[in-house]
Amino acid sequence: NYLIENFGFQRLQTKENRPFILETIGAIDKSKSILGIRYEGKEALTGFDNNIEILEMLNESGIDNIKLRISGWFNGGMNQSIPLNLRIQRVLGGKAGFDRLADYAIANHVEIYPDVSFVSVDEKGLNLFRSRYTSKTIDSKPAKIYLYNPATYGIDRYHKSVYSKNIISPAKIPELVD
Questions:
Q1: Which long-range contacts (CB under 8 A, 24 or more apart) does 104-110 make?
Q2: Cα–Cα distance for residue pair 41/69, rounded to 1 Å
Q3: Which of 23, 39, 153, 156 is deepest in the core (most CB within 10 A)?
Q4: C-beta of residue 26 within 8 angstroms of C-beta of residue 71
Q5: What is the pLDDT of residues 81-134, one digit of tens each?
Q6: Cα angle 106, 62, 68; round to 5
Q7: What's the whole-model pTM score?
Q8: CB contact set of 62 (below 8 Å; sequence gap of 6+)
Q9: DSSP secondary structure of the chain
Q10: Phi, psi angle pair for 27, to nearest 5°
């Protein structure tokens, strides 16, 4: 309405029931401590029950044809490990919570798209599989993706080890998808 009133925009006439696409982020890494001992743990941003609450609010508001993409739901959350076997994050509600969300989605005609990355994997998520699944650079080192400093467009040295991701070899993607 603001754009229509102030900038002369015109409202498009709806010809079909367009989808409402929603993405939620599940688990992220967070430094935690127990009895003064620091460790890297997982923090839930949007648990499975939270997704159900959001979907209920959208349905009550009259929004339908919802497509829900869930990121960070398995094997390490947003910094997922290699997807050879899937372990649903307990901090989000575990398998029981995921099943509740799936049941709700089926009953309310919501399509769920659990996000899985087959192109890059967190540095910590490869362990024994590093030499078997990663792409190699011309000097036979694992190919990686880094965060870049926007001022220098160089690799952000401070976050280099924290946010580097290994690139999965294209030849191994069919195996991972299967």
A1: 104/52, 104/55, 105/55, 105/68, 108/55, 108/59, 109/64, 109/65, 110/55, 110/66, 110/67, 110/68
A2: 23
A3: 156
A4: yes
A5: 777 788 999 999 999 999 999 999 999 999 999 998 888 877 665 665 667 888
A6: 40
A7: 0.76
A8: none
A9: -HHHHHH---PPPP-S---EEEEEE-EEEEEEEETTEEEEEEEESS-HHHHHHHHHHHHHTT--SEEEEEES-BTTTTS---TTS--B-GGGTHHHHHHHHHHHHHHTT-EEEE---SSEEEGGGTGGGHHHHB-B-TTSPBPEE--B-TTT-SB-TTTHHHH-EEEBPGGGHHHHH-
A10: -105, 140
Tokens of 114: 């659990």
Q: CA 65 to CA 14: how far, in whole Å?
A: 14
> Tokens 């997922």 appear where?
80
Contacts of 172 (CB under 8 A, 6+ apart): 132, 133
